């Protein structure tokens, strides 16, 4: 089973593309492969606890975590997560963090265990712009990615393909923003995630 997570809306925006992609997959799941789909709270600590709990519950053979990268025009496949929580924009419970570790005494950084370059290629083949990224920031997207990768390493399961993918904002989110603010329609984002899932499923079948 593949675990796929998104995030609920946060800040002053009523939409989150990662949540909507998860809902689209719920309504029309891929024909092959079982998915466990969940929308996570934008709450530090709780989101990481939940994603690890889900991976254990469903004995995930792969983990794809999704979130929003406001201001970016393409799908970003993250290659690394850092052991740092540092955000002044409060989460949905009002929490902020300054220079705090995600996991006490954990390594400074952990690489995604999925083949990021191949996933970028899969998205581009589907006709959606994508790039590899080496910084997932220091907000909850990075936090849950680090928590998951740390969990897999600590339990001897680093062979499980896992990592984070950032999605652009939706057009409705940028209507009141300056002209030219990047966005991507939902159907393109869903196509990108389906391409990633197809590639992950193919890899699991070969394994």
Question: What would you say this structure looks like, in words?
Answer:
The protein has a six-stranded mixed β-sheet, with helices on both faces. The protein has a two-stranded antiparallel ribbon with strand order 5-8. A two-stranded antiparallel sheet has the order 6-7. The model has no long low-confidence stretch (mean pLDDT 93). Helix 1 (17-27) packs across helix 5 (186-206), helix 2 (46-57) crosses helix 4 and helix 3 (116-125) packs across helix 5 (186-206). By secondary structure, the protein is an alpha/beta fold. It has five helices and ten strands; from the N terminus they run βαβαββββββαβαβα. Strand 1, helix 1 (17-27) and strand 2 (35-40) form a beta-alpha-beta unit.
């Amino acid at each position: 089973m593949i675990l796929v997570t998104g995030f609920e809306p946060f800040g002053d925006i009523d939409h989150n593309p990662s949540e909507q992609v998860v809902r689209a997959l719920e309504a029309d799941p891929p024909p092959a492969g079982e998915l466990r789909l969940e929308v996570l709270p934008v709450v530090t600590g709780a989101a990481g606890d939940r994603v690890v709990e889900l991976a254990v519950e469903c004995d995930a053979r792969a983990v794809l975590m999704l979130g929003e990268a406001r201001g970016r025009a393409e799908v970003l496949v993250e290659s690394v997560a850092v052991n740092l929580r540092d955000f002044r924009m409060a989460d949905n419970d009002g929490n902020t963090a300054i220079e705090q570790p995600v996991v006490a005494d954990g390594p400074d950084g952990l690489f995604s265990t999925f083949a990021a370059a191949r996933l970028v290629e899969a998205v581009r083949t589907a006709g959606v712009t994508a790039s590899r990224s080496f910084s997932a920031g220091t907000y909850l997207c990075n936090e849950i990615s680090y928590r998951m990768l740390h969990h897999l390493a600590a339990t001897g399961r680093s062979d499980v393909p896992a990592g984070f993918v950032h999605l652009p904002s939706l057009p409705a989110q940028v209507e009141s923003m300056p002209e030219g603010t990047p966005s991507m329609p939902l159907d393109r984002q869903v196509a990108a995630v389906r391409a990633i899932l197809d590639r992950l499923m193919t890899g699991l079948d070969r394994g």
